[in-house]
Design a protein that fits this description.
This protein has a 16-stranded antiparallel β-barrel. It folds into two domains: 84 residues; 370 residues, Porin, CATH 2.40.160. 21% of the residues lie in helices and 43% in strands. It is α+β, with helices and mostly antiparallel strands.
Length: 473
């Protein structure tokens, strides 16, 4: 019998009893105290029945809960056993990572977006580079997605590594074959704890400012003078690497480099038929006096980071393939070319200094109205930043370069000042900077005009205002 039925019968009986007693009146001679006792007894019985029924209900609910909990535990155990068998871990560690438990198999996925608004002003009406853009104005301004990239890197069977990056940019290879390209793609084999071998499409690894990825620069863009040099580009080749706690070095044999790589030059990064040099060797030696190698992966030194000093020396020597027209003018017999560069970086945990000087002999890259003047170009730059707060940084840079473009006054002198707001470290950063050129800039002969924002103009005093929102993961 259910609780409701029992309580109903008991309540009815109680009501009948009380009513009967009430109707009996004085003949039954029932006292008020007697009625109260009977009522109390009935309420006690009702409470006892309710408690018994609730106890049974709680017992059934508890049993259902326990059964559900056991099923959840068993399902979780099965899932963990399955994951253990596959050896998979997933999470975020400088990118989204999928890895085996022992780390011998790993995939890291990174992404980058750099969206800019740029205003450039020249004293005279000019036709900017690249061609086909707005012409005949002193001022040019607008929005652009300068870079949008996906990077895939990781480990295969412990001793083998890969790194490849898909990049969209309006300045990729002069839009030939298009604005999207495989920026780099190379594989690395660990030969020992200190030696490794990399093969594929990769950076030369000579000049530090170019070696640091675009997303870890201090200014919005690398210096125009850095883009000028032949090794500030990407090629196909074989590179031997050495690394220990204090020293890093590499030696590379590659296809060489084309003229004006970032300004519509020849695509030397494709098939073996695009080989622009008979041969090319390059390399770099770096000494870390203090700090960590990881901190020098970026050009800044945040507050609270470790102090450190890094010194680097890079070199390259190559022979152009005169028969393919890699030399300028086409078919010219160009002598063996070379360059030397030295850089120093100092981090102080809240402010930093960087400087470099480069000297080389590159006749084919010294373009002057169809003439090939003597090489012996050289240039230098200094750069530094200071954190006003944990998230706000001021920076400045001055660069000087004699590119031997054949003009009477062809030195490049550019001052850049700006600020960074680190909204979420390097992962979300808002930047603004302003660059002023004291002399004329022939970007058609220098390169880098696209990414830096400078246009092709023969007069002095061009200036560029750049803003950038960077998001990366």
């Amino acid at each position: 019998m259910s609780l409701t039925t029992k309580v109903g019968f008991l309540a009815g009986a109680t009501a009948t009893t009380i009513a009967g007693a009430a109707f009996a009146g004085t003949s039954a001679n029932v006292s008020y105290e007697d009625l109260q006792q009977r009522l109390d007894a009935a309420e006690a019985k009702i409470a006892e029945l309710s408690t018994t029924q609730n106890a049974d209900w709680l017992t059934e609910q508890r049993a259902d809960d326990i059964r559900g909990l056991v099923q959840d535990v068993l399902a979780d155990a099965d899932t963990r056993a399955s994951l253990q068998g596959s050896g998979m871990q997933a999470g975020y560690n400088n990118g989204f990572v999928i890895s085996s438990n022992d780390g011998q198999w790993m995939l890291r996925i990174n992404g980058l977006m750099q969206n800019r608004w740029i205003y450039t002003h020249t004293p005279e009406n000019v036709n900017p580079v690249p061609p086909g853009t707005a012409t005949g104005r002193k001022g040019h301004h607008g929005f652009e997605t300068t870079r949008a990239a996906l990077n895939f890197s990781g480990t295969v069977a412990k001793d083998y590594h890969f790194n490849m990056r898909l990049l969209y940019s309006p300045y990729n290879q002069g839009n030939t074959p298009g604005p999207s390209e495989l920026e780099w793609a190379y594989a690395t084999i660990d030969l020992s704890d200190q030696f490794s071998l990399s093969m594929g499409k990769q950076k030369f690894g000579v000049m530090r400012e170019y070696m640091v990825n675009a997303e870890y620069q201090q200014a919005i863009e690398r210096s125009l003078s850095t883009y000028y040099w032949a090794t500030s580009s990407i090629t196909n080749g074989l590179k031997l690497n050495y690394a220990n706690d204090s020293f890093r070095a590499n030696v590379m044999y590659s296809n060489g480099t084309a003229v004006s790589q970032w300004n519509g030059g020849v695509n030397q990064n494709g098939s073996f038929l695009s080989d622009s040099a008979d041969w090319m060797f390059s390399g770099r030696f770096a000494y870390k006096a203090s700090g960590t190698w990881e901190q020098f992966d970026e050009m800044t030194s945040p507050q609270g980071s470790e102090a450190g000093m890094l010194f680097g020396f890079g070199w390259a020597v190559w022979e152009y393939d005169d028969k393919t027209g890699a030399a300028l003018p086409v078919g010219a017999d160009v002598d063996t070319q070379w360059l030397l560069t030295f850089d120093a970086s100092m981090d102080f945990g809240g402010w930093n200094l960087f400087g470099s000087i480069t000297y080389g002999d590159d006749k084919a890259n010294a373009i002057g109205g169809g003439n090939v003047p003597d090489g012996h170009q050289w240039g230098w730059q200094v750069q530094g930043g200071y954190y006003l707060t944990e998230n706000a940084e001021l920076f400045g840079r001055f660069e000087w370069l004699n590119p031997k473009t054949g003009n009477d006054n062809d030195n490049i002198e550019i001052l850049t000042i700006g600020a960074n707001w680190y909204l979420a470290g390097q992962n979300a950063k808002l930047s603004i900077d302003w660059s002023y050129a004291f002399d004329s800039i022939q970007t058609a002969g220098v390169g880098g005009g696209g990414f830096t924002g400078f246009v092709n103009q023969a007069d002095k005093h061009e200036w560029v205002l750049r803003t950038q929102l960077q998001l990366m993961f």
